Amino acid sequence: MVARGRMTGRIDRAAEDVFAYVSNVENNPEWRTAVIETRWLDPGPIGPGRRGQQTSRILGRRYTVIAEVVDWDPPRHLSWATTAGGADVRTHCRVEVDGDGCIFTLESEGEFAGAWRSLTPIAAAMLRRQSGADIDRLRRVLEERESSRSRSP
Questions:
Q1: Nearest-CA neighbor of 116 among 84, 81, 87?
Q2: 142: number of CA atoms within 13 Å, CB side?
Q3: How far is residue 122's CA from residue 82's CA, in Å, rounded to a whole number?
Q4: Fewer CB in 10 Å around end: N or C, the chain?
């Protein structure tokens, strides 16, 4: 069973700033609740073919996947697809200009691999709840950074 989830929220930051932040996998532990650690596997600029590794805690278990950037259209859209690990997942991030801020959409579809496949519906429900919290967390991180910059002399 393939699980799907989609969450959307408004962020009071320029679309370019939001896109730059979410496209860098090294920022994921700051705003994605389940993510423990992330790192790039390849040097160079972010774009199609660049790979990253991410370890998350889901249902009390650690999952490490390798994902590759498959779609790259800054500052509007990027997609990742897993290429190795305990899950077969594709994640989309969309950023749309909305006045002086933007609308951010996080959308994922996929399932666990192998013996854990039957846990996909349970994990999907949990991750949908977390995705809403993650967008709130992303909003706070980015808006607080902007607020602290504007207060600096």
A1: 87
A2: 26
A3: 20
A4: C
Helices (H), 6-119: 15-22, 28-31
Contact 46, 69 (CB under 8 A): yes
Closest CA to 20 of 81, 95, 83, 124: 95
Classify residue 50 by its DSSP letter: -
Q: Give pLDDT, residue 59.
A: 77
Please count the other Cβ atoms lying within 10 Å of the Cβ belonging to residue 119: 15
Q: What is the CA radius of gyration of the chain?
A: 15
pTM comes to: 0.86
CA distance linking residue 18 with residue 110, whole number of Å? 24
pLDDT in tens, 111-131: 877 766 676 666 666 666 677
Q: If you write DSSP's letter for every residue of 116-142 in order, what string do you get?
A: GGGGHHHHHHHHHHHHHHHHHHHHHHH
**Cα gap 130→148, rounded to integer Å:** 26
How many Cα atoms are found within 13 Å in the side-chain-facing hemisphere of 122? 7
